[in-house]
Amino acid sequence: MQEIIPMLCQRLREAWLMLKVSRFADAEHKVRAILRLIGSQSGTKDTRGIIITLKLTHEDIANYASVSRETVTRLMGNFMKDGDIEILDKKYILLKPSFLEKSVFV
């Protein structure tokens, strides 16, 4: 029982954060918030920034952010072009300090 209560509390916190993200008006803020949230939960800090070690597809990110996959693909391209993120080994996402500075965190 003592292990179930903290786990349920953590899941409830995550659900509240997801509700906050869904209230953002534009897709860019939603995607930035989701990437930052995933980075804070399961990312690894590195000298270059935060590496998201989960293998996420654009579809996964789109589902979390409640936007279309095409929108995520376009935004990820923009983030890479701006130098805010980098894709490592074709599966990990590096969130650079410039991305973290621009991101809205819930």
Q: What is the name of the CATH architecture?
A: Orthogonal Bundle
CATH superfamily: Winged helix-like DNA-binding domain superfamily/Winged helix DNA-binding domain
Q: What is the count of structural domains?
A: 1
Our count of helices gives 5
| Strand portion | 15-25%
Gap between N and C termini:
30 Å
Can I get a quick summary?
The chain is of the alpha+beta class and 106 residues long. The protein has helices spanning 4-22, 27-42, 58-65, 69-81, 97-102, and strands at 43-46, 49-52, 85-88, 92-95. It has one domain (4-102): Arc Repressor Mutant, subunit A, CATH 1.10.10.
Task: Explain what this protein looks like in three dimensions.
The chain has a single domain (4-102), classed as Arc Repressor Mutant, subunit A (Orthogonal Bundle), CATH 1.10.10.10. By secondary structure, it is of the alpha+beta class. Helix content is 58%, strand content 15%. The longest helix is centred in the N-terminal third of the chain and has 19 residues, at 4-22. It contains five helices and four strands. Helix 2 crosses helix 3 and helix 3 crosses helix 4.
